[in-house]
Every structure is written in structure tokens, then in C-alpha cells.
Amino acid sequence: MALTTPTHGSMAVDWEERINFDRLREERLMRIRGILAESEAGALLCFDMTNVRYVTATHIGTWAQDKMSRFSLLMQNVDYPILWDFGSAAKHHRLYHPWYDETNSRADPTLLRGAIALETGRAAAVAKKIYDELVVHGLENEPLAIDIVELPILFELQKLGVTIIDGQQMMQIARMIKTEDEIRLLTHAAMLVDGVYDELYRYMRPGVRENDCVALASKFLYENGSEFVEGVNAISGERCSPHPHVFSDRMLRPGDPAYYDILHSYMGYRTCYYRTFVVGSASQAQIDAYKKCRDILDAAISLIKPGVTTAEVVDLWPKAQEFGFPDEEAAFALQYGHGIGLAIWEKPVFSRLVSYDHPEVIQEGMVFALETFWPATDGWSAARIEEEMVVTSDGCEVISRFPAEELMVTGGNVYVTATGPLSTVRDTESQYNNPRINPNGRENGAAPAQKRVATSRGENI
């Protein structure tokens, strides 16, 4: 299938069109205004920094991501939202954001997630300013949709007689279908992770620690334009099964599996992108686990096209009990899919836990990631693979490009024995690789010596 999404350099140039940020801002605002117009709400109040960025096209740094320290109010029949910002950021936006002026870029601190004492009256002051704007536009008796909020501010709004409804779903629906520029930004973000995995592939060897790999990934991303490395899952060895979802200072050893999830942001747009490797060599159990993990992922990808439901996709995946978990809650997010955009988890969600009873229809313009997991029969290894894709008119385009069709062996130098290169398909315990003692290899362990796997230098051994 022909590629549909171009990738560009990171600079703006005068000789070709790249990301059109004016169009990005306008189309995002137009989309959420349309969702608001069709809703029962008179206005939409956002404290979630991701939603504030989508609505206002402003950003003050990732340090503010979880602070709820700035908020926006988008009202019916009003062209632009009002943004109450963090101190001097309001003046900055009036100076450098031509779509904001003194009437809609204002300074007003919140409670800083409870750090400012309730006795200061800040909650009542914030609520009153919001309410006064609703009154000016005749919306005080209409429901107010809110995404997230500090409870004291919520209580003060209710004291003023404001009816509160859920605004997070409105924002999720607005963000579900991506614009052309959003898709390009998501593809650019994935392109940076392609580069990270090439660096990791060449770097991993015995003696390297998980946190060393996290540092290398973070350095590459920040040097190449990432604004926020949200997380790097680096999981190796016996930590692979079950998945702990956090890196450590564990040192890589020969024969270890190692899988990674790179979560970062380019111009606000995220990635969620797993790859699995083995260090130096792979056992047959690891190869088999990887093949199973890849097969169930590919089966899901092959089904993706507009009109298919999330229930149909998850029906291709194994039940929790088939890979060692008692139920779908315990296995949640191991066979999984989720939208990606300004956040790593957006609509639609693919999970056997929720998708059967509440299926979502796949639509053109969605961007999501599908990720699968499979434990090896050795009891400690596992494989984890994830692909990001854009839904096209007749299928999907996978935008995560680092090779993952087969299990890849890292390790730098090829180990050489007296009779030639050491096979890269072998058990981690050497005695089980002796064909005179174990002519067929240990069960779920070593494979025949003639098996060939690519090394990190590109040789076929």
C-alpha cells in the first residue's frame, strides 16, 4: 500500500509546505466548537492541560501538565475561548499569540491542587470569575461541561447554582478524529522513536543497565526536538513476565529478553511504541513467544478499516486465562489498543474487558496503537510489540517503522568459538546446547545449531 503520510524536517522552510500550524489551531478549535454546539452544554470549562492546549493552542511547559493551574472557558456563540493563565504567562500570550488579547488572556491562579489554603478564598474567586462570564453571555442557567476540576472550585460553582456535566467525554470525542496536521505530527513523533530504537539496538549488550537505556533514549529524543519524554519503559530478563510497567537499574545479561515502550511528545503529540529484543542470543522459547505475540498483533492490524468495531478486533486476541491471568482485569492493557494524540490514551480503546459490551466503530482519521504481549514457556521471558497506525479510507497505514517482524538479537560483537561463530539461537544455560547430550535441545530451550538470526552488526550468523 502506498504511504499516505509524509515526514519532514523539524524546521519551517519557505520552499515546501510542512506542518501548517495556523490550520492546526483553526481546525482543532472548529472541531471542539462543533461538538459543543451539538451538546446540551452552554460552555466547556477545561482544567486538563491537554484539553487546554487543544482548545487554546497555548503551552507553558510540561511541568504544568498535572498542576491544574490554568483553565479555559469556551462558550456557545463566542469565537474564542477565555484563558486564565499562570501569572506572567498571560502577558506572554498577549505579546506573542496574536489570537489572544487582554480580553481573553488573563492571569488567575487556582488552588495548585490544594497547595493554596482554602481560607484564602481562591476557590470562590475562581468560581465567581467563571460564573460572571456565563452571566455576561446569558449562559448561567445552561449546563457547564467540565473535564477535571479541584473539588473546592466545583463546590463553589454549585453554590452559585451552576449545573455541572461531564466535559471530558466531549473533549475525547473532539480529539478522536485527527486533522491532517495532527497526523503529520504524530508521524514525526513516531519517526523519532524509529531513531531511538536503532540507537538501542546498537547499544544493548551485557553490562548495560535498563536505566542506561532510558538515558540514551531520552538524550536522543530531546536532542532531536522532543518537548517531553513522558516515560521509557525498559524491562529486561526475569522482570519481563509479568510486565511491571517501570524501568529499574537491572543489568542486561546474555540471553535476556528486553522490551521497551517509548512515550514522548513532539509539539504535544505523543507516541506509545513497544519493541522487544534479546541480548546476544535467543532461546527457542523466546522465539516462539515473539512469534505468537507478532501473530496476534498482525491478525488485529489486518482487520483495521473504517466500519470495523473494537469488539471485532479484540475477539481475535486470546483470553486472559490463555496466557496466565485469572480474568481480563488482571490482564488489562497486555492485549490492548488505544487512541494516541495529545495524550497517550485517547479514544478508541480496544480491550476484552470493555469492548464487547461497549464497542466503538473505527473511523477514517483515527490514530491509535495496538499492543500485544505473550509470555514464554520458560517461565520468565516474554515478548511485547506495539504498532501505531492511521486509519485510511480502506485500511490503515502503520507509522511505527522500526523492524519488528522477527525477534532481533543485539549485542554488538559476534561471539566466536574455536569452530566458528556462536549460534544466536541457544539456551542461556550452556549445558543444554550440547547436541551430544541433548540432540534435540532442551524442551522449549535450544534450537538446532543451523538456525540463523541477524546480529546488531547486520551479519547473518
Spatial shape? elongated
In angstroms, what separates the terminal alpha carbons?
32 Å
Per CATH, the superfamily of the largest domain is: Creatinase/methionine aminopeptidase superfamily
> Could you give the order of the helices and strands?
HEHEEHEHEHEHHHEEEEHHEEEEEEEE
Structural class: alpha+beta
Query: What is the mean pLDDT?
Result: 92
**How much of the sequence is in beta strands?**
15-25%
Q: What proportion of the residues is helical, as a percent range?
A: 25-40%
Q: How many structural domains does the protein architecture include?
A: 2
Low-confidence stretches: 444-461
Annotation, overall tally of beta strands = 18
CATH topology annotation of the largest domain: Creatine Amidinohydrolase
CATH architecture of the largest domain: Alpha-Beta Complex
CATH class of the largest domain: Alpha Beta
Largest sheet: 6 strands, mixed
* Spatial strand order of the main sheet: 4-3-2-1-5-6
What Rg is obtained from the alpha carbons, in whole angstroms? 25 Å
Number of continuous helical runs: 10
